[in-house]
Amino acid sequence: MKIFCKILATAFFLCGIANASANEKGINIYDTPRELPSKVIYGEHGRQTRLKDFNGDFVLAVFWSRYCVPCIRELKSLNEYVRQTKNDGIRVIMISPKKEWLGGFSEQRRLLNKYGAPDLEMYVDDKNDLAAAFGIFSSPVTVLISREGKEIGRIRGSAEWDDPEVIEYLFRVKAEHG
């Protein structure tokens, strides 16, 4: 019985370490890059854009909601990430459902400013077509897009974007895949 308990305890310990490592990264990099959906999003100045229009930049497309507490909580660190990486060919775009912003982009900008994120680039998904095409039905989810315009991975859930380890990890992902 003692041996069985030791084996069981060791198994639970090892599973806990494996889960902790996976949860810390919270990232899934694909073996094969995927094509991007060709759905339209709208920028702050009303211009129609598709994700393929960002070719040449390594893009973090953050799908978020104003009603998502983890999304709001990560805005300030995401803004700091943008400040630290903006000259390194990394572009962060925020995509939220248009129906959440009855006051339009000015309402969205006020909210971002309120939570310490004045530098974030905003877009709206008019009919939630892009999120649906990606199979995204909760937030936050960050889609990683290579400079060649392919989806190379995702981050599910929030992150401490301004943590030096996160920044270094994403630079490695960009160098290897993007």
Could you please describe the fold and organization of this structure?
With 178 residues, this protein is an alpha+beta fold. The protein has a single domain (27-177), classed as Glutaredoxin. The chain contains five helices and eight strands, in the order H-E-E-E-E-H-E-H-E-H-E-E-H. Strands 1-8-7-4-5-6-2-3 form an eight-stranded mixed beta sheet. The radius of gyration is 18 Å and the shape is globular.
Which secondary structure elements does this structure contain, and how are they paired or packed?
Elements: H1 2-25, E1 27-34, E2 41-43, E3 48-49, E4 58-63, H2 69-85, E5 90-97, H3 104-114, E6 121-125, H4 129-134, E7 141-145, E8 151-156, H5 164-177
Parallel strand pairs: 4-5, 5-6
Antiparallel strand pairs: 1-8, 2-3, 2-6, 4-7, 7-8
